[in-house]
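Entry 14. Structure prediction run on the chain below.
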Amino acid sequence: MVVLTSLYGQTSNNFIQFIHLDSFCREHNIPFRNPRLKKYYNDYPNLRKAKLDYTGWQLFRPLKWLRMMNVLNFDDQEQRPAYREKLQLLRGRKLFCEGWFFRSIETVPKYRQLYQHLFDPAIDKQALRDKYLQRTSPDEVILALHIRRGDYKEFYNGVFYFEDDTYLEKISQFKASIGKPCKVIIFTNDDALDKELYIRTFGNVTISDNPVVADHYLMSQCDYILGPASSFTYWASYIGEKPFMHLLDKKDEVRLDRFRISDGSY
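Output returned:
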């Protein structure tokens, strides 16, 4: 049995960390438990039915400190193949693990429908669709724009932190590339965002002010997803099977041929 005892990062990272370990274990008939996901049961009730709990896992940290427990830490990106081999070699034994760099890129796409079920949110979806996803014409395209500020000012020395002029330019490039009427829904953690600037420039712009569980769902229902490199947009693309493009530099040109659907291998 494999037990994940520590979640990595924030919500989207937690989910991506889970699906790689869970899908690998399913594929190789290895029992897997992730008791830390319990905090998401209210938002995603199907997780509660997935039998992810593990009685007594709270003893993990004290025993770890005493070096009385076998712990595998996925903390080295270069060791990804070795981690997979380790899990198979130790099958039949109890293994506690933590960390970010476990990947099973072959199995995550295979179990996409299962995770769409497990992470089906307990929210009023119709209300969100009525408020945000109505189209003014049958051919109108809805673009989800993720404006990540806050921690991105320092993250990787701010390489993925873009000012408004960059986002305005990228919206214009997308509209030119799509060649159809376009509605923009902005998702942001910037409370001071100049929302009126975007509305004045493009007109058909809406700002989402929902909690993460609703924003994940809403973004996953848009036609295209655009934003800086982030697991948030990657997860929405994976779960909603909608094409996304990550801006890695302010000079990146937004074109339709650069969008793709996430396969879960982030």
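Residues 39 and 159 are 32 Å apart (CA to CA).
Filed with the rest of this week's runs.
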